[in-house]
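Q: Given only this backbone (318 positions), what sequence would you predict?
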């Protein structure tokens, strides 16, 4: 009789522990909230199975037009680590963090990057080109271009800042985190070397292009490309007739042969410019967000490789 009761009890206890195991493992993951999809991917690359990452601004979404919701505040309140870009890119984060009650560390991924200053503009010119666009969604970039992740050299700094934050949060897993960081940095460096070689093969006078908004200044500086945009630094505003006329003149005067639309922007403006000037659209670029999971640019490295390939092909046309 004793054996009859012991065996079922042991079986039930074992089954219960098996059912509980996935929950326990899930609870051990560090809950991290990243402000947008590119940062979320970097955190996943470094943290691996140690982290559970949520992105406030998801794939194919425009961070410039993001409006936080109460559910976003709830996600922040449950986080153990928050990662943001900084450089005034997310004008909504301070208010959101305060309203959520989050008291933990906020990692500023761009800390230490070599920034690009915005060119000085008059008040009238600023209004025309979106230099100061904090009035609508709080995205006042001030005097700095915030799109620093468009440089792979800067991406190295982003990854090191994220790694430092994860190490402070998970000191017992330091060996695993550091190993993943080094492997990721190696892949970033290889991508950078390949991109330099690809752009170096294009004559300097052909490295000129039009994009929807000025999100590629750091990429331009890294590889000697000139980008021009009718929308300026933000997608918050629509380009004026004067903006379009200015771009059309630049295309003619500088013999620009490629236009590139962005996945998070309305393509009609660039299509209009292409029709007015006869310049072909060279493809779609990813600027502020990744693509949906399972598609061509669903990680930062895939996004960068896709952009480089699209740019090289577009700049070589004609």
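A: Predicted residues:
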């Amino acid at each position: 009789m004793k054996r009859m009761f012991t065996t079922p009890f042991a079986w039930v206890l074992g089954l219960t522990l098996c059912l509980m195991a996935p929950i326990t493992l899930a609870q051990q993951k560090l809950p991290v909230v990243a402000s947008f999809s590119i940062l979320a991917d970097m955190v996943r690359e470094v943290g691996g199975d140690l982290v559970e990452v949520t992105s406030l601004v998801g794939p194919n979404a425009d961070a410039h037009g993001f409006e936080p919701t109460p559910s976003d505040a709830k996600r922040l309140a449950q986080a153990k680590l928050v990662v943001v870009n900084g450089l005034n890119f997310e004008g909504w984060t301070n208010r959101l963090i305060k309203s959520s009650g989050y008291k933990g560390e906020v990692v500023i991924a761009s800390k230490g990057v070599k920034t690009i200053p915005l060119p000085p503009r008059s008040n009238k010119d600023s209004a025309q080109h979106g230099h100061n666009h904090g009035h609508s969604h709080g995205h006042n970039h001030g005097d700095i271009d915030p799109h620093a992740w468009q440089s792979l050299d800067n991406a190295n700094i982003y990854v090191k800042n994220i790694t430092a934050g994860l190490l402070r949060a998970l000191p017992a897993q330091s060996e695993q985190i550091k190993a993943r960081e080094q492997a990721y940095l190696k892949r970033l460096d290889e991508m950078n070397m390949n991109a330099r070689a690809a752009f170096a093969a294009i004559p300097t006078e052909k490295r000129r292009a039009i994009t929807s908004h000025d999100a590629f200044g750091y990429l331009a500086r890294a590889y000697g490309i000139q980008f021009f945009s009718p929308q300026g630094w933000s997608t918050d505003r629509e380009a004026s007739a004067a903006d379009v006329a200015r771009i059309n003149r630049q295309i003619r005067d500088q013999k620009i042969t490629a236009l590139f639309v962005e996945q998070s922007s309305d393509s009609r403006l660039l299509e209009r410019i292409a029709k007015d000037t006869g310049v072909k659209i060279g493809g779609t670029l990813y600027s502020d967000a990744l693509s949906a999971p399972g598609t061509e640019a669903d990680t930062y490295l895939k996004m960068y490789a896709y952009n480089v390939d699209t740019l090289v092909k577009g700049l070589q046309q004609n």
